[in-house]
Amino acid sequence: MSHDQVRSAERSEAGAGPGAGAGASAAGGAETPFLELLARGASADAYEQPVLLARAEGRSAEWIAALERAKPLALRVRSELEGRRRREAELSALFETAHDLAGLRDLDAVLRAIVQRARSLLGTDVAYLSLNDPVRGDTYMRVTEGSVAARFQQLRLGMGEGLGGLVAQTARPYVTDDYFKDDRFQHTVAIDAGVRDEGLVAILGVPLMLGHHVIGVLFAADRRARVFDREQIALLGSFAALAAAAIDTANLLTETRSALAGLERANEIIRDRSGVIERASDVHDRLAELVLRGGGVHDVAAAVSEVLDGTVEFTEALAAPARALEASRADGHAVRHEDDWIAAVAAGGELLGALVLRGHPGLDPVDQRTLERAAMVTSLLLLARRSAAEAEQRVRGELLDDLLDARDRDPRLLRERAARLRADLDATHVVLAARLDGPAADADQEADARRRLWSAASHLAATRHGLAAARDGGTVLLLPLEPGDSATELARRTAHHLGTAVHEAVTVGASAPVEDLAVHPDAIAAAYAEGRRCLDALRLLGRTGDGAAAEDFGFLGLLLAGDRDIAGFVDRTIGPVVAYDDRRGTDLVRTLDAYFGCGMSPARTKDELHVHVNTVAQRLERVGRLLGDDWQSPARALEIQLALRLHRLSVLGQD
Prior knowledge:
alpha+beta
């Protein structure tokens, strides 16, 4: 920020009306430099400059305080703006498809767009769509994306053959991790040759359904072994539903054109329905525009309410009428319930909620289809947001796994990967090992509890600009250490936070602070081992649900710590006594050594030191004030004797 900009802000402060207080003037003027930074899209680092510049110019404490208050607000606004732009980019591909369908003109173009976007969002090598040919009684490739083999692109398959045949027969999604080793479906020479030419290994297929009939299959495939998770299957299923809707819409348009050519009465029917069809197109345009602007599911419901001239609400699954909701999910259509219409919001068999049209018993079939497609768009929105959140969690976990395994030692690449996740590897961090300690009824419940712990840890890492990954039956976190904070306090806060989030006891062991992680990634593995030792020690001591670092275990911490911080142990145990001797020229350390060597007997100690017994008592009283009243308890006395011996050895080593 330039000097002219600061002085301009000062003039704004000076120009405040006579009725305004000095604090209000400072607060108002302090916002100006941050508004200018927001306007030009400056980086987060630039938001430090107004405060630094004000300090350098000797501005008043009130002005600097106002800048300090304005800065986090400006950073919050900047973060929100960046988040909105990112969500718009992620959702654009999904809702462009809905927009294409709303203004359907060319079925092939819409199907190509669906296949291209399905391949892009699932990150597969190839995606393709096959349709059934009722005339020839077989199935043919309609659209392929990413395919390089001509024979594969021209395949025609007999009914019941290949993975697609299994999907068509059962009307359910199927996935194979290794096509040629899977014997659940019928292999043929022609199909296997085409798949081999294309080099495909893992294939996922979902049915294209019109009512209860399978009209084709949408596939996503990789040229390497891959496991498709539930969310990816659901997402491809949603695209298949869009493809079926596009085909259905195209069929409707074809029937309409035939009716127009054959019957005058059909003209009147089309005119009667045209307004409803236009409303359907309008609602899809509105939904696409709304979501691309960053809208949510309730905004979608509001847009559909306006088009259908009624009240549409999104409700959770438990709040909707159970029987009507289940019927809508099973049938794939909106279902009337008293004076309302219920459209299930579902994806891949998972029920996400419902769109409810209130007080509208009479509903045109096209308006009913509009409500159903709005429910489909809502499910895509919910899935996209969930996928985006889980994708970021996976990326954070992959970076931490690489750091723990020291796979990537290029500091520049490590910093770049961390920066994309808003993490700073040059800051001081603590490695924390977390594990659940509640009893699990069975393996499924234990796996679910671990997933909840990983999810809570990932959320905490994202909000703290750190990293998290599932490891060794628990979770490992890499969190930055704030100035003035300690590894112990961070471990305790983390144990409390995670335990609250998962409603179970979570024990957390912490490493000592580590630095320069990009330059020394192997330090993270050592720190994680130290955190694991602290975690095991807490559990052995019965301190489940607590958090601690090696420094909390006294001399046991020497065994737990990765770097064997002997000097730190001595300083924590008898440091005040050593410092007192250095400042005052006294002999408290030697007195302590003699006292323990004489069996903690003041009488024998005075003979050993050749001083009066009162002198011994006075020195021991001073030791008590420096170390605390419990310094002679068995546990403290053991630690002090060990520290005295280590101190003596270190002094001899220096000599």
